Amino acid sequence: MTGKNRLLKRSDNGKMKSEETESEKPEKAETLFTKEQLLRSERFQDRKDLLNALLSPEQQYTMKQAEQKTEDYMKGKVK
Q: For the chain, what are the domain ranges?
């Protein structure tokens, strides 16, 4: 996502002028969930037992991280 900002620059004749520039807006931070929240979610009902074994109760995870852990396990990439 981009937004417009105003930038003040000194022109060749020494006067200040305003220019519009495009800048990157920071990406929205992903929401973190506890193990219990993920286990109760509809999204993971078919993998509830697997998530219960893979996730730590002391940590928080994004949906993407939880999905990646299950995918890595199913592919045999568990460390």
A: 33-74
What letter would DSSP give residue 33? E
The answer to whether residue 78 scores a pLDDT higher than 50 is yes
SS3 of residue 13 by DSSP: coil
Give me the half-sphere count of Cα atoms (radius 13 Å) on the Cβ side of residue 19.
Answer: 10
Span 45-55, pLDDT tens digits: 999 999 999 99
Provide CB contacts within 8 A for 8, sequence distance 6+: 16, 17, 18, 19
Read off the pLDDT of each residue in 23-49 and give the average, rounded to a whole number: 87
Element (H, E) at 10: strand 2-10
d(CA 73, CA 77): 6
C-beta neighbour count of 58 within 10 angstroms = 7
pLDDT score recorded for residue 28: 74
